Amino acid sequence: MYAFEFHRPKSVSEAAALLAKSKGKLIAGGQSLVGAMKLRLASPENLVDLGGVAELRGIKREGNAIVIGAGTRHAEVAASKDVQSSIPALAALAGGIGDRQVRNMGTIGGSLANNDPAADYPAAVLGLGATIRTNKRTIAADDFFKGMYETALAPDELITAVSFPAPKKAAYIKFRNPASRFALVGVFVSQDASGVRVAVTGAGSAGVFRATALEQALAKNFSPDAVKGIKVDTAKLNTDLHATAEYRAHLITVLAGRAVAKASS
Amino acid sequence: MGTSVSLIINGKTVTANIDPRMLLVQFIREHMQLTGTHIGCDTAQCGACTVFVNGNAVKSCSALAVQFEGAQITTIEGIAGANGEMHPMQAAFKECHGLQCGFCTPGMVMSAIDLVKRHGNSLSEQAIREGLDGNICRCTGYHNIVKAVQQGAANMKGV
Amino acid sequence: MNAPEKAQSAIGASVRRKEDYRFLTGGGKYTDDVTLPGQSYAYFVRSPHAHAKILKINKSAALKAPGVIAVYTGDDTAADKMGGLPCGWLIKDVKGEPMKEPPHPPLAQGKVRHVGDQVAVIIAETYNQAKDAAELLEVDYDVLPAVVDAVEALKPGAPQVHDGAPNNRCYLWSLGDKAATDAAFAKAHHVTKIDITNNRLIPNAIEPRAALAHYNRADESYTLYVANQNPHVERLLMTAFVLGLPEHKVRVIAPDVGGGFGSKIFLYAEDVIVTWASKKVNRPVKWTADRSEAFLSDAHGRDHHTHAELAMDKDGKFLGLRVKTIANLGAYLSTFGSSVPTYLYGTLLAGQYTTPAIYVEVDAAFTNTTPVDAYRGAGRPEATYVLERIVSQAAREMNLDQAEIRRRNFITAFPYQTPVALMYDIGDYKSCLDKAQKLADVAGFPARRAEAEKRGKKRGLGYSTYIEACGLAPSNIAGALGARAGLFEAGEIRVHPTGSVTVFTGSHSHGQGHETTFAQVVAARLGIPVESVDVVHGDTGRMPFGMGTYGSRSIAVGGAAIMKALDKIEAKGKKIAAHLLEAAESDIEFKDGKFTVAGTDKSVPFGGVAFSAYVPHNYPLDKLEPGLNETAFYDPGNFTYPAGTHIAEVEVDPETGVVQIVNFSAVDDFGNIINPMIVEGQVHGGLAQGIGQAMLENCVYDQETGQLLTGSYMDYAMPRAADLPSFKVDTHVTPCTHNPLGVKGCGEAGAIGSPPAVVNAVIDALAPLGVKHLEMPLTPERVWRAIQGKPTKVA
C-alpha cells in the first residue's frame, strides 16, 4: 500500500468539500478499495472516510419505495424487515453478497460507486429501475452505470441514498465464480406495472446490462418457458479463465428462467 | 503524518498515532502483539484474520485501523472467560476435532460465533456450510468444523 | 491411576488433542508471530517475466530509499560463493545416465526462468519500506520466449530453459519389463486406452511460508525460525550444500506450522537468503510471504500428461499395463522434485491388482514455471488417477460392473511382489470394497438414480480402489534408487524424576496432532496418563535428529522410533526395579505402569523407578548409569501400504453442468489406529484436497507469456465448506507386519483415492448422454460442454 492522508468528515457536505479540495478518494466499507490499495492497484493520496457520516446510514420507506442510505451495510439490508417485506429479492441479494464478514463492512453506496462488473447490487439497481441520489442530483439506474468500474458520478459527487421501487415480483439468481465467489453470471428479474426488467451482472464486458431479448419475451409471458431457447448475443460477453462467452450466454437464459420461476413462487 | 486512532481492544482502550495505511490486522498483531489473529491471504478470502468490530465479524486484513475510531474490537484472545475457560464455540471445536494446524482456526471460530448470533442456535448443516463461506480451511475438509459449529451453537444457548 | 484416565490414554481412544487449547485461544506461535529485538524485514524482488536475461541491475535508487539497510542481488551471493539449492534425489535415465541437474541459484544469476523467480532482496527497517524500495530497483531484462507446458517444452524448437538440459529434458526414466509387457499386449483380448491430464495444483497451506533468521556474533551461531516440515533436513541441506556453514552452529526451529501438505518440506531460496543476510546486516531478518508470493514461489504439485493402455483377457483379467507420462518439473529441480514422477509414481502403478507386466516411461521436462515437487500424495495420486480411470474405462468397454472388474483382479495373497519394485506386506482389498459398498449403500443407488432422473438430474457412482506406499523409507533401498538422504527417524524419551515424560521426536506436526497421538503411544506403553506426556518437535536444538513429516511417515517411522526408545526405557526400568524389589531382572514384568515380580504382588510403580533413577541412593550404581533418558533411531524394513476403496456419488445438473457430490464414502486400511478421531480428520482433509483437485483447483499459466493466471484466491478455486459434503468414513484393519505399532499412515489417502472416484462418478452419470471422458477440474462449463458434445478444452 502506498502512503496517503486520511480524513474523517462528519457530514455529507464536509465529505464533498474534502473530496473536491483533495482530489481524493472516498472510502466507505473499503471492502474493494482496501484490497486494491494493498495490491497497489489503487493509490489515492487522500482518503476521505465516510464511516463517520451518520446521515448516510439507515433504511426507510417512502411510499412504494424503499430508500437505503449509501452507508448502509449489506448485512443491515439483508436483515431489514422493511426490505424483506417490500422487496424480498433485494434482501436476499444483499444477504448473498461476498461473505459474512464482507457483508458486515461493505456498503451499498460503496458497491455502486465502484461498479465492479461482477458485483450484485448493480443488478438489483438496474433490475428494479432504482434511482441513485447523490449530493447533487438524482440519477436513474439506466443512466448510472457507464461500463466497468465507471459510473455517471462526477469526481466530487457522492451517493447519498438509493431508492428502490417495490416491484410486483422479483428474484435474483447468482451463479458463483467458484474461486472468487463473485457472480460468474447473476440475473435479476422484476415485473411491475411499468414492465419487465432483466439485469445481468458478471457476464458483460462493459459491466451490468439489461437483457432486452429476455425482457421482451417475458413482457409477453412472464413464465420460465417464455425464455427457453432464447439465445443471448455473445458479442458483448466476457470470456475469461472461468467461463466462455458462449457458456455465460447459456447461463443467462437458464438463470433468467429460474429467476422467473423463483419470483413467481 | 500519522493519524491518531483510539480503539477498545478486548475491553482495553488503546490510543496510538499510526501510519494510516496500517491495516486493522497489523494494528492487532504488531501494535498489540495479539498474534492469534492471522493473515492467510491478500485478497480478503481466507478469513483467518476475522475479528469482531462492535460485535460483528469483519476481516481485519481488508480494513484500515483508522476506519474504526472508537470501535470495540474483539479478537480470539478476547472471547475466553476470565480464567481462560474456553467459549462454548472454542470448546466445541476441540471436542469435535474441528481444527488441525490451527492457522485458520481463530477466524473460523469468530465467524462461527457471528453465524450463531445472527441465525440462532439451531442451524442446519447446509446453513453452516453456506454461513462459513468467508473462511477457508485447508486441513479439515470442513466435516468436523460443521459438527463443531452445530455443537457450539447448541452450547451457546443462554450465553 | 483411576480407570477413566487409563481408558482416556489407551491406544485406539479418540483422545481430544493436547495442542488445541493454544490454537483455539490465539496462543499458537507460528513463525510470523515470532518477533526478535531489532528485527528487519526482507522483501524479495521477483521476476515479472517467465523467461528473460538480466542485462543490468541498478541498486542505487533502492539503496537510498528511506529505511533501507541493504540490497542484495545474485552478484552478492556469487561473491560469497553461495551454492545452488540442491536436489535430494538423483534419477538415472533409461541409459543409466544421471539426470540433468542445472544450477538453482537462490538469487538469479544472469537469467530468470519463471515468473516469481528471485532477483534481489531488499532489507529495510519496515516491510512497507522494503516494498517501497523494491519499486526503485532498476532491472533491465531482455525478455525471451517462454514455454510452460511440458509437452510443448519437449518438442524441437521449444525455448530452452537451461543450457545444460538440451530439449528441456531432465531425464527419460523407465521402470518395469518392457518386453514382458509388449508380450502381454500381444495376447490381449481387449486393450483400453486413455489420454489424461493430472492438473497442476498449488498447495495453499493457509499459513504462508515465513522465515526469521538471527545471527549471533558472540558465538557465531545462527537461529532460523521457519515454517517447515523437517528442520533437520533444512539445516543439513542449507549448511552443507548452500551456505557452507558449520552444521552445529545453525539451529533451525519450525514452531507451530500452519499446514504443509508437502510444500514446506523443501529448502527454499528465501530461507537461505534471510539466514545469509542476517549475518551480513547483523540484524535479525524476517520474511513472510503474502499469498500472491506463495502462489508464485511455493512448489506446485502434479502436472502430468499421460497415455496409458491396459491389456485384458476375455474375462477382464489384467494382462499388462503400459504407461507413458510427461511430467512438468518447473523451472528448477526442487528438493524432491525428481523423485515424485518416478519412484513415488511408477512404483504405484500395480495398484491393488495382479497385473503381471507393467512398463512405465516418464519424460520429465523443465519449463518456465514454478518448480513442481511433492504435494499431498506426491506421485501416488497421479498413479492412482491413471490406474483407476483406465480400470473404470475398461469396465465400461468390457461391459463389466465397476466393482466386479476390480474384484477379479485384486491381489489376495501376501506378501506380494509387484512388477514395479514394491513388495506389499499385507492388505485385504476385497473387505474394504465390500465395506465401502455397504457404507455407500450401493444397493440403493438405482432407486436414487431413478428419483434424480425424475427431477431432471443425472446421478452417477464412481469407484477408486487405491494403494499407496508410505512410511518413507528403508534408507538402503531409497539410497539404491538415488535418494541422497537417509529416511529413518529418531525419538528420545526423557523420563523426569517424578515420572512424567517429555518425548522428543524428529517427526514434525503441522496439524497432524502428534502431540496427542505420540503422547498416547507413550502413555499407553508406560501406563501413565496422557497428560503426563509432552511431545516436543521441530527444533534442531532440542532433538537428536529428524527426517521430518511427509509421505504419511510419522506414526509408522517416527512412532516406531519412539517405541524403540520405549523398549530401552522399559529394559532399564526392569533393571532398576529388579534392584528395588530384590528380584532377578528376568522375573520383572512391566504392565499397567507397574514393574512387578512375576507371580507375586511385589511391585514398584513406573514413577518410583524414575525417581530412583534420578535419586540413586538405593541403586545399582556399579552396574547401571543413573538417569532414565533413551534415544533410538528407527529405519523401516519396508514401506507401508495403506489401501482402500473410495466411492463417490454425484448428481449433475445437465442444464448448467453443475456437479454436486451427494455422497462420499471411504473405507481405508491404515493398519492399527492410535487415535480414530485424528485419523478420520486426516481422511477428511485429504478428501477435501482430492475433491478440490477433481472439482475446483487448477493452476493455469498463460501459454504465451508464462504469466500465472491463477495467482490468487480470486482465480484459484479453493474448496469452501459449501463445496463439500459430509463424508462417510470407516476403516478396515490389517496391521502392518513390519513395524512395532502395526501402523501404516493416513495423511495422504484421502487425496490419493478421491480424484478418480469423483471423475468416474461424473462419467458414470453422463455416460447415457454419450460422455466418455472428462478432464479435471470438472468445472460446470467443462461438464456442460461435454454434455453438449462441444470441445471441452477451455482454460
Keywords for this entry:
heterotrimer; A: 265 residues; alpha+beta; Uridine Diphospho-n-acetylenolpyruvylglucosamine Reductase, domain 2; Uridine Diphospho-n-acetylenolpyruvylglucosamine Reductase, domain 3; Enolase-like, domain 1; 3 domains; five-stranded antiparallel beta sheet; four-stranded antiparallel beta sheet; 12 helices; globular; C: 795 residues; Aldehyde Oxidoreductase, domain 4; seven-stranded mixed beta sheet; five-stranded mixed beta sheet; 21 helices; 28 strands; 29% helix; 23% strand; disordered N terminus
What's the topology here?
The complex is a heterotrimer of chains A (265), B (159) and C (795).
Chain A (H helix, E strand, L loop, with lengths): L4 E3 L4 H11 L2 E3 L5 H6 L7 E4 L9 E4 L2 E5 L4 H6 L1 H6 L1 H7 L5 H6 L2 H7 L6 H8 L2 E4 L3 E3 H4 L14 E7 L3 E8 L6 E10 L2 E7 L7 E2 L1 H9 L3 H4 L17 H20 L1
Parallel strand pairs in A: 1-3, 2-3
Antiparallel strand pairs in A: 4-5, 5-8, 6-7, 6-8, 9-10, 10-11, 11-12
Chain B lengths: L2 E7 L2 E7 L5 H8 L18 E4 L2 E4 L12 E3 L13 H8 L9 H15 L5 H7 L11 H13 L4
Parallel strand pairs in B: 1-5
Antiparallel strand pairs in B: 1-2, 3-4, 3-5
Helix pairs in contact in B: 2-5, 3-5
Chain C lengths: L2 H7 L10 H5 L15 E7 L5 E7 L1 H5 L3 E6 H6 L31 E2 L5 E7 L2 H8 L3 E6 L6 H4 L15 E8 L1 H9 L3 E9 L11 E7 L4 E6 L4 H13 L6 E4 L15 H12 L4 E4 L2 H7 L6 E9 L5 E13 L26 E10 L13 H19 L3 H8 L6 E2 L5 E2 L4 H11 L5 H10 L3 E10 L7 H6 L8 E7 L5 E5 L8 H13 L6 E5 L16 H28 L6 E4 L2 E4 L5 E3 H9 L14 E6 L8 E11 L4 E12 L6 H20 L32 E4 L17 H18 L13 H9 L7
Parallel strand pairs in C: 1-12, 10-11, 14-15, 20-21, 27-28
Antiparallel strand pairs in C: 1-5, 2-4, 2-6, 3-5, 7-15, 8-13, 9-10, 9-12, 13-14, 16-17, 18-26, 19-20, 19-25, 22-23, 23-24, 26-27
